[in-house]
Amino acid sequence: MTMIPGAKRRTFIQGTAAAGALAALGRPAFAQTAEFTLKWANNIPVTHPSNIRTREAVDAIKKETNGKVDIQIFPNNQLGGDTDMLSQVRSGAIDIFPLSGLILQTLVPLAGINGLAFAFKDYQTVWAAMDGELGAYIRAAIAKVNLHTFDRILDNGYRNITTSSKPINTADDLKGFKIRVPVSPLWTSMFKAFGAAPTGINFSEVYSSLQTKVIEGQENPLAIIDIAKLYEVQKYCSMTGHMWDGQWILANGRRWNGLPKEIQAVITKHVTAAVMAQRDDIRRLNNGLEAQLKAKGMIFNYPEVKSFREALSKAGFYKEWRGKFGDEAMAKLEKYSGKLL
Ligand code: X2X
Fold this sequence. Notes:
The structure is a single chain. The chain contains 14 helices and 12 strands. The radius of gyration is 22 Å and the shape is globular. The protein is 45% helix and 16% strand. It starts with 8 loop residues before the first helix and ends with a helix. It is an alpha/beta fold. The protein folds into 2 domains: 6-155 and 246-287, D-Maltodextrin-Binding Protein, domain 2 (3-Layer(aba) Sandwich), CATH 3.40.190.170; 160-243 and 291-333, 3-Layer(aba) Sandwich (D-Maltodextrin-Binding Protein, domain 2), CATH 3.40.190.170. (2S)-2-hydroxy-2-methyl-3-oxobutanoic acid (X2X) is lined by residues 43, 100, 156, 182, 203, 220, 224, 245. Residues 43, 100, 156, 182, 203, 220, 224, 245 line the site of (2S)-2-hydroxy-2-methyl-3-oxobutanoic acid.
């Protein structure tokens, strides 16, 4: 260790100890205080790749802006359920908020379009659509309600049905079934078309609703089923893969537009890198999750898609939503999905 000439030894030691303590907390010590403090809130547990990668992005943004931008993360519904957080990001009480396009549908009807059942046959198609023309079309619709959307959408995943009572093998097994769906017109409509009895409930209340048996089942990607510990209150997992769902990272429009261009560029760069890493994390997790959930006691089954698709077609589900989304939007989707009947 070299002494700084002329430095008072006492001050020097104190300074070093303080820097060491900050480093131990994993926070770089910055001389500058933050000029822009932003609140980032979400509905996801801290251990989910979305939050792990968001934390990395936030640290990298702070570092690159020399401490000027301090983004605080409020995970796991700390600031309210999704419906509430959506109001908050609109009013500016929250600055950044990732949300499923299907829940955003209550405000931007078109944003639910990627959730049309069985639209995307695989991830390659999902990313071609969402990073391509379909995604751009959706983001343009979101911009009209004065929310900024980052170009790349987070992966939530293909959704599967879990229950406490029985495996779901065909659409018939869903007849009258009390299932939670997120608060979204498309989701409710889809499960009604299956013949189920869906209730719109925010994710913040899903675990307790399953535990108290207010509902018998729910549907989510395996990563959520595992990380939110839904296997503790659910027994069966039926791999329906009935839709792909992702979270658009939304920012309050006024707040975003008020940030200097160079700050926007730094934030965008690191948020985009975080999303790409998150997608990769989910892809790797997906390989092992089924085995892990089985080890935790869940029983898996692998239904044929046919009866589910037929139930939807028979109930007029695709026809109804084609009418609601309109021909132009459906053409953007079907460019990737093929014709949905
Ligand atoms: O609410 C859900 O089920 C979740 C966590 O998957 C979403 O964010 C849509």
